Amino acid sequence: MKILWLLASYLAVGLVIGTVSALFGIGGGVLMVPAMVYIWGLEMQVAVGTSLAVMIPTAIAGMLRHSISYENVDFKLAAALAVGATAGAALLGAPLAEALPAETLKKGFGVLLVLSGLKMTGVFEYLIALAK
Description:
Helix content: over 70%
Distance between the termini: 61 Å
Strand content: under 5%
Mean pLDDT: 92
Shape: globular
Low-confidence stretches: none
Number of domains: 2
């Protein structure tokens, strides 16, 4: 029974994250990593690696739907970014994730999310305007 409950929780969280990923283009890791760490107690490095594996089919499915149904994928830009992102992931990101302590990764991930959120909501621009 516990296995069925666990599988149901995986599918439910995956459904929500897949929906949000395709909606906002966030890749899912922003939500998937915290879910795996805080819901299921995975180590940070395992959550990061697992999230990357999950994102392959998720990204392909979302990209195909955006491309075929809505024609809003810039493939030239995607190809150029993919080359740099692939090199960065393989040569720098994965080795750094393995070398750093899990607690450092958690804190860095949190800072990245907070700064991204502040930028996306316009808080930085607001503060700059106030300072003038």
